[in-house]
Structure formats: C-alpha cells, structure tokens
Amino acid sequence: MSVEEGTANHGRLLGTVRGPQDVKRMTVEQLDILAAEIRDFLIAKVSRTGGHVGPNLGVVELTLAMHRVFDSPRDRLLFDTGHQSYVHKILTGRQDGFDKLRQRGGLSGYPSQAESEHDLIENSHASTALSYADGLAKAYALRGEPRSVVAVVGDGALTGGMCWEALNNIATAGNPLVIVVNDNGRSYSPTIGGLADHLSSLRLNPGYEKVLDTVKDALGNTPFVGKPMYEVLHAVKKGIKDAVAPQAMFEDLGIKYVGPVDGHDIAAVESALRAAKNFGGPVIVHAVTRKGYGYRAAEEDEADRLHGPGGAFDIETGKLLAAPSVKWTHVFADELVKVADERPDVVGITAAMAEPTGIATLARKYPERVYDVGIAEQHAATSAAGLALGGLHPVVAVYATFLNRAFDQVLLDVAMHKLPVTFVLDRAGITGPDGPSHYGIWDMSVFGVVPGLRIAAPRDAGTLREELREAVAVDDGPTILRFPTGTVAADLPAVRRVGPVDVLAESARTDVLLVAVGSFAGLGMEVAARVAEHGYGVTVVDPRWVRPVPAELVELAAGHRLVVTVEDGVRVGGVGDALAQAMRDADVRVPLRDLGVPADWHPHGTRAQILADLGLTAQDVARDVTGWISRLDAQPVESVPRDQAGATN
Predict the structure, then answer these.
(1) Which runs of consecutive H residues, i.e. helices, occur in 108-149?
(2) Residue tagged active-site, from 94, 102, 277, 405
(3) What's this model's pTM, rounded to 2 decimal places?
(4) Which of 116, 147, 471, 530 is the Cys-Cys partner for 479 at CB 3.0 to 4.6 Å?
C-alpha cells in the first residue's frame, strides 16, 4: 500500500478508529492491515509538519496490543519518553489533529492532559515514567481501586538513574504494575552503557529467533488463567534463558520478567501483556522493536533512524525539504574540533544526544576523547567533575532544558570544587514546536545562583566561537555557554568593547541603555532604530558574559536615564534581576525595566508566534521603551558625557 493510498480517508480501517474499543473488536488480519495504515498515516502527516517519526514507527504493534489488553483511560498508560505517543494519540481519537502536529492550535508532540483523558502525564523527559507509575500503583492499592498501570520505557531511558531508583521501590512495594521495555537499541543514537550491551547481546545472539519462536508457541497454545499462565511462561523462559543471556538482573530486583517478545508481532505482545496483567505484581515485558520499522528512509538512517526531523521532509528520501542553513549547533561543533586540535586536554561529554548537540563531530575525529553517558545528565555533570580533577577540561553538551536535572551536581560537585567544566546548552530560550517541557528558559535564572559559575550568551557565530574559547580558557570554575536553536544570526559587529561588554549602537543622547542578551541583539538594534524616531537616544549593548554581572555594565547603566533588559529566559532571577541587584549594590539609582519570559507553561507554536504572544518583538519592545522614557520626569536629566559614565574602551 502506498503512502497516498494509505492516508486517503485515513485508510479504510484507520478511518473507523475513534477510540480503543474499535481496536479491541478487530481480527488479527485487520490489525495487520491497520498497522500498515497507521505507518502510512504517520509518514504522510509527519513529513509535512516535522516531528518524531522514527520512534513512533517502532511502537505501532506495541501500542495496538496495549490498547487491546488494557482499558484506557481507566487503566493508565504512561509513555517515557512522551515522543513515542503518536500511535497512542491516533488510537484515542486524535487523528484529525495531525494536520497541525506541533503547530499552533494542533496536537502537542507529547502527551497532553488538555488534549485527552487518555493522557495523564505531560512527560517528555526520559527516565521519569517509572516513578510516576510507582506512585500511581501505590495510590490505587491504597484506595482499593483495581486499575492497571502500564509504563512504556525505551531501553535508552533505562540508562537514567531515576529508572533504577524507581525499580527498587516498585519491587519493594510489590503492587501490580506492568513495565514495557521498548528495546530498540536506540534512544536518539545507539544506546550506551552496560545495560545496553546486555540487551544487545540478547538481540544479537544466534539463538534469539529460537527464543522468540519458543515463547510465541507457548503463548499461542496455553490458555491465560491468571498466575498459573504466568508461571508456565516463566518456566519456558527459565528453561532457555541461561543458554541465551543472563536475565536474572531484573528478577534479582524482585520484578518478574517476560520476554523477549517480538515487538512487531501483535499477538505475541498481546499475549505477554495479558500474562503480565494477570500476574498481580510488578512485571517487566521485554519487547524487541526496530526504530523506524517499515519505512526504508528511517531504517537506512544510521545516525538516529529519522528520530525527529525538525521540519517537512521528502517521503522518499527522508531529507528535509528546507534548504540547508548554518545552525548554531554546527558553529559550535566546528569550533569545538578546532579547540580540541589545539588543546589535547579538551574532551566532550553528552547524554545520549551526540548528533543533536554537535558532539558527534568531535567524536568522529577524536573518538577516544568523547564520552556518551546515556540519558544520565546528573552522572554527566559529576563525571565531568572527575575528568576535571584528573587534569582535563570537559565540555558537556546538552539541551538547555535537560541541564535542569543536574542542578545539584553542577552546584556541589562542580562549582563548589571550583572545577573547570564547560556546559554548552543548545536550544536555550523559547524553542517552539516541542512545547513547554523543552523550552530552555530556566538556565540563566536557575544556574545564576551558583557561586563562581560564569554564563555566556553569544549573539552570532563570531561571538559563539569567541566565547567558547574564553569558556575553555577558564581554569578556576565552571562555565555555561548558551545559544538558541535554528539558523545562526548574521554577524553583528560591535562599535567598541567596554571590558567584556560589546557596545553595538550608541547615540549622542544617553536616554536608554538597552541590554540585549544573546540572540536578542538583533532585536535590540531594531528597537533602537524605532525609539530614535521619537527623538530618544538608545545605547545597545551585548553583555556577552551575563553572570556574574560585569562591573562595566553597571557603570554604563549609571550614565543613562533608563535601563531596559531583554532576554530569552524567565524574568524571575534572570539577567534583569541580576543587573538590578548589582545596580542597587553600587548605589546606581537609574530605573530599570526587565523584559523576558514569564515563569509559566507556554503552549507550543513557532518561536516567532510565542515571542509575539509574550510581547518580545521589536515593535512591542520599542513601544514599551518609548512609553517608559517619555513618562520619566518632565524635566529630563542632562545627558552624562560617556567619559564621565565610567565607560572605557
């Protein structure tokens, strides 16, 4: 069936699915057809909007089986991570929303309580679902509610420490809970770590196909009668597991194990899930799947199986339709390799995201100097501390939103020891389609309280390269370098430099000091031009290093009538707050207004749409600045000559 044929009217069978009950009534033959139609539907829809296509192609049969065995929403289905929930959305009546997937007014790319009663947790960060599931199972047990809790966990998520903390507690509690390990050998890129090697040895063992056949036969020929059936399955598995791979590690925790089962065989998965459901305690169902299954372009993509194209792509090739552009990530990756060429002590660390963060570029040239720790940001930070103690300078590259998970490690394991570790935060600020869980708006506020930590925010490719080099030159404490997603801004040269602060524009009048942080530098220039039309003079500066606040920035503030900060981060505890405090400490009484992102959960949409909603456009900011300066004392303060304002070249 072609993609076009499969998506006409949502496919013959798919068009009849408005909820899980419709799937429960289908025959085995119909389910196979439905699975093919779902794949065609996903490829067609996501090719137009971008999104997580590879992970969802891999869980089609698995999700169908789950909705046949369990009764959502009474039974709770939790996805870790949430980007593998597209099929779940399709089966719970949200097919029509895929035309605007990840777009304003359309479906979220993750589970969303606002969308459906079938979504309970808006979870898109890995390794958390098991903890949610543990709490839910305990609550239902205490309330006497016979409800099933099912957590779908990718094998990559099991590299996260939270999973193992949860497994320990799940085993101790002993409540009914089904953990589906979706084992495709990949999170974003191939899964890293001892557990990954263990599961891989099972997948690659010559006896694996025989194992699947044996388990399928046992499931197909034995009736399901609660615990006795589970014990039959358990006996079959026990009899063969020692010849294939040591599976005792899960059972040593006190959690029963079923598998491996072929995750693309609906009957096999359904049988295993029914056995697990009827057991009456915690059970792990190990399903082996293939990320990108059924779509050649995804299966042939060695990097990440077409994990998450950021925009529309060609169905035949899987390649993005938009013309290639220079991304912030590319600039960082290229410069990091150049730094590593010059400094053999520089090493790279990432948390299962080597390609998305650019660390893969360094790994291709210096594989022995790059460490992918799996989905384990806390370990990444403290391991980096150990590398620094050993005389190296680690560069830890993660998305800005994910470093939040390692705050304690950055604070006490790195900063307290004054260790030279550079954290590079990709996708800082409002990122758009991925929604509130992925917005990198917290870092300047959260990490701004860490003593001795320096934070840089480059405005363009040139300053990114420059500030990366400045960061790795710091040898007495940690540094953060943050930049947004997307196409890198055009280079914006400075008029002059005052200490570490770049002056981008200045006027004969010193009415307003506009502090434009990072990628907002271009916006600052537009604002200055608009405000100048009203007769006011604006000095636009890029602090470059926003924490700690440069003393020169405070001195510049003292020479103006009004200070305005604009930043791509939360206002509370942000750069504006920090500058205001520094001005108070220096007894600089110039009024300050701070513009930034309110501390809230902002809906998904394009970056431009969200910034417009927040009033962070050139037109909005210029209107605000003009209003503020015009409302100052009717007798304007005489402009202070720059050489008396403490500004020096």
Answers:
(1) 129-143
(2) 405
(3) 0.81
(4) 471
Rg (alpha carbons) of the chain, rounded to whole number = 27
Q: Rounded to whole angstroms, what are the CA distances from 513 to 141, 541, 542, 569?
A: 60, 7, 11, 19
Instruction: Give the residue carrying structure tokens 């079938």.
Output: 118
Q: Considering 45, 76, 291, 459, which one is annotated as catalytic?
A: 291
Separation between Cα atoms, residue 86 and residue 41, nearest integer Å: 11
| Residues whose CB is less than 8 angstroms from the CB of residue 84 and which lie 6 or more positions away in sequence, other chains included | 52, 55, 56, 58, 59, 152, 154, 182
- As a whole-number percent, the residues of the chain with pLDDT over 70 amount to 85
The number of helix segments (H) and strand segments (E) in the chain equals 27, 18
Per DSSP, what are the bridge partners of residue 258? 285
Annotated catalytic residue within 299, 377, 470, 552: 377
> For helices 28-49 and 266-279, what crossing angle results, to 10°?
100
Are the C-beta atoms of 162 and 133 separated by less than 8 Å? no
Token pair of 225, please?
């009668």
DSSP 158: G
Classify 147 in phi/psi space as left (phi over 0), alpha (psi -120 to 50) or beta.
beta
Please tell me the distance from the alpha carbon of residue 130 to that of residue 114, in angstroms, as a whole number. Answer: 22
Q: What residues form DSSP beta bridges with 564?
A: 514, 593
Distances (CA, A) of 382 to 195, 394, 412, 573: 20, 11, 9, 25
Which residue in 646, 369, 339, 362 sits closest to 474, CA to CA? 339
The CA distances from residue 74 to 21, 119, 123, 145, in Å, are 13, 11, 19, 10
Give Cα separations from 337 to 253, 360, 393, 426, 481 (angstroms). Answer: 43, 10, 14, 17, 16
HSE of 103, CA atoms in CB hemisphere, 13 A = 12
Dump pLDDT digits (tens) for 433-463.
Answer: 888 888 899 999 999 999 999 999 999 999 9
DSSP 8-state symbol, 411: I
368 in catalytic set:
no
Rounded to a whole number of angstroms, the distance between the first and last alpha carbons of the chain is 69
> What are phi and psi for residue 605, nearest 5 degrees?
170, -175
Q: At what angle do helices 60-69 and 28-49 cross, to 10 degrees?
A: 130
Structure token digits, residue 533: 């039309």
Tell me how far apart the alpha carbons of residues 306 and 308 are, in angstroms, rounded to a whole number. Answer: 6
Tokens of 507: 């006027």
Name residue 422's amino acid: T
For residues 82 and 121, what is the distance between their CA atoms, to the nearest angstrom?
9
Packed helices 575-585 and 551-558: angle between N→C axes, nearest 10 degrees: 70
* Contact criterion met (CB below 8 Å) for 473 and 563: no
Instruction: Give the CA dihedral 341, 344, 349, 352, nearest 10 degrees.
Output: 50
pLDDT for 257-305, tens place per residue?
888 889 999 999 999 999 999 999 999 999 988 887 777 777 777 767 7
State yes or no: is 291 an active-site residue: yes
Those residues of the chain that have pLDDT short of 70 are: 1-10, 123-124, 155, 185-249, 303, 306, 308, 633-649
**Helix, strand or coil, per DSSP, at residue 542:** strand
Known active-site residue 405: yes
